[in-house]
Automatic annotation (TrEMBL):
Signal peptide location: 1-29
Similarity remark: Belongs to the peptidase S13 family.
Coiled-coil intervals: none
Alphabetical list of Pfam families matching this protein: Peptidase_S13
PANTHER family documented for this protein: D-ALANYL-D-ALANINE CARBOXYPEPTIDASE (PTHR30023), PENICILLIN-SENSITIVE CARBOXYPEPTIDASE A (PTHR30023:SF0)
GO MF annotation list: carboxypeptidase activity
Protein name per UniProt: D-alanyl-D-alanine carboxypeptidase/D-alanyl-D-alanine-endopeptidase
Keywords: Carboxypeptidase, Hydrolase, Protease, Signal
UniProt-listed SUPFAM superfamilies: beta-lactamase/transpeptidase-like (SSF56601)
């Protein structure tokens, strides 16, 4: 989630302090068989890594069908889940909204049409669709023109009232404001790509002769670009939107092309600007200014666009760990259940869903896990993973989870570079999570005997580089687990090292990990 690299702890500090919670022992396993005892001993060994000496670890492994606990260490401790929060948001959305749910963006005429003239306002109304691209707004504008409208005597009204006007999570850090993964949330928004990074623009810098040329995708005059970059021997450039403004400043040196995904300050105003530009392109002139407000009763529909169904949206949402999708779905659930497109209403839906499925301990402050006040236990996550297996929407939700070692971005997702060449590759389906000093991995794996397992691993408050490799070692060991044929030490695979492991793969735009 937060794109910040943890500082390194000194070796002396790590060696001096004891791990307060203490690792699990083989006695944690309810099944006394040698295979389970060996599993517990191996997981203890993995979690005895010196990077966790001063950290906290919460882990639970259960049989997915019976719920039997096979291993646990501090499973009841409240910990930061990071993007593991999306497991709850995605499941609650599938349950509450349904897999066929679609977002609708419509254009309404608030006045009488006489010939080619609409005598009144033109209204652009959204319900939160994160998949709207500039070309979709252009298509809506073309549809308006096809209705014969050439002049709108009134205003262009952007109706984003489906959600409230609280744009940012109350616990989100200010230094994330320019980042696309912390973009403002609105019922009217636009994405620059088919990862559907709603509320952001791609800003690119490249050498053009003796100068640096800066461009945006989509092309827009909504942002003010201040280009201070120069041509240099290497690319060392910073592209950042200034706090609370529409101004993007580009500094540093450029040798090879570079691009950054930058959030906009106001997705509603940005979307309206894209739409207004497209209207002009298609010969529709709006006389009045652009404003915001609710569409009046009786306004007639001129054009409409529906998003892909939730069943399809779950894929980029979960595979690529898209924060904005999580928050939009949260507010959409609040709107459906309570008639309020707010975080408070939506989070209550997610929390009620979790508790109805046996989850007792959780604290949800947002839908994505970007908040550092979110709190879950390993036991809570494992309980959710067991409980949802009987849901009619489970196959689609399960398929949306990243698959270990699969190089396809929309299959492997944030696990595509992990656990390759191990028994976990193509086997483990799990949700990743990262914040500064936080990593998590929770999901499903099939053992060597064909036994379905669920697991939740949360590692918090480490000062070293990210210990994601420990998560992978646990997942690989679970894929090797056998109750009847204990794994010999010679066959216990070690997970390969993870490059760039401090960041979620989805943060590396364009993602290459």
């Amino acid at each position: 989630m937060r794109r910040t690299t943890a500082t390194l702890a000194t070796g002396a500090l790590v060696a001096a302090l004891a791990w307060a919670s203490g690792p699990a022992t083989p006695a944690n396993a309810l099944d006394p068989s040698p295979g389970v005892a060996d599993l517990a001993a191996d997981l203890d060994r993995i979690l005895s890594d010196s990077r966790l000496t001063i950290a906290q670890a919460g882990v639970q492994v259960r049989n997915a069908e019976s719920g039997e606990e096979l291993y646990a260490t501090s499973p009841g401790k409240l910990m930061l889940p990071a993007s593991n929060t999306k497991l709850f948001t995605g499941a609650a959305a599938a349950e509450t909204l349904g897999l066929d749910y679609r977002f609708t963006t419509s254009v309404l005429g608030a006045g009488r049409k006489t010939g080619h003239v609409l005598g009144g306002d033109l209204v652009l109304r959204g319900t939160g669709d994160p998949t709207m691209l500039a070309e979709d707004y252009d298509r809506l504008a073309a549809d308006v023109a096809a209705q014969g409208v050439k002049v709108v005597t009134g205003r262009l009204v952007a109706d984003d009232t489906w959600f409230d006007d609280v744009r940012l999570g109350l616990d989100w850090a200010w230094d994330d404001e320019s980042a696309y993964y912390a973009a403002p949330i609105s019922a009217l928004t636009a994405s620059p790509d088919r990862d559907y990074d709603a509320g952001s623009v791609i800003v690119s810098a490249a050498v053009a002769g003796s100068e640096v040329k800066v461009t945006t995708k989509p092309e827009t005059d909504y942002l003010t670009i201040v280009n201070k970059a120069t041509v240099g021997a290497k690319t060392d450039v910073l592209i950042e939107r200034q706090h609370g403004t529409r101004t993007v400043v580009v500094t540093g040196t450029v040798a090879t092309p570079y691009q950054e995904w930058v959030s906009v300050d106001d997705p509603t105003a940005y979307s309206a600007s894209l739409f207004r530009k497209s209207l002009a392109k298609h010969g529709v002139r709006v006389v009045g200014r652009t404003t915001t407000g609710a569409a009046p009763e009786g306004a007639s529909r001129l054009a409409e666009r529906q998003s892909m169904p939730l069943k399809e949206l779950l894929v980029p949402f979960m595979k690529l760990s898209n924060n904005i999708h999580a928050e939009i779905l949260t507010k959409a659930m609040g709107r459906k259940v309570a008639g309020q497109g707010t975080w408070a209403a939506g989070l209550k839906v997610s929390t009620d869903f979790a508790r109805a499925n046996g989850v007792q301990v959780l604290n949800m402050r947002d839908g994505s896990g970007l908040s550092r006040r979110d709190g879950f236990t390993a036991a809570s996550i494992a309980q959710l993973l067991v409980a949802v297996r009987d849901k009619p929407w489970f196959p689609a939700w399960y398929d949306s989870l990243p698959v270990a070692g699969d190089p396809d971005r929309l299959v492997g997702g944030t696990l595509r570079s992990r656990m390759r060449g191990t028994p976990a590759a193509g086997n483990v389906r799990a949700k990743t999570g990262s914040l500064t000093g936080v990593t998590a991995l929770s999901g499903y794996v099939t053992s060597a005997d064909g036994e379905p397992l669920v697991f939740s691993i949360m590692l918090n408050q480490y000062l070293s580089g990210s210990p994601k490799d420990l998560e992978d070692k646990i997942a690989v060991r679970l894929a090797q687990f056998s109750r009847t044929n204990p794994v010999s030490a010679a066959l216990r695979a070690e997970a390969p090292a993870i490059e760039g492991s401090d960041l979620e793969c989805s943060w590396l735009k364009p993602a290459t990990c």
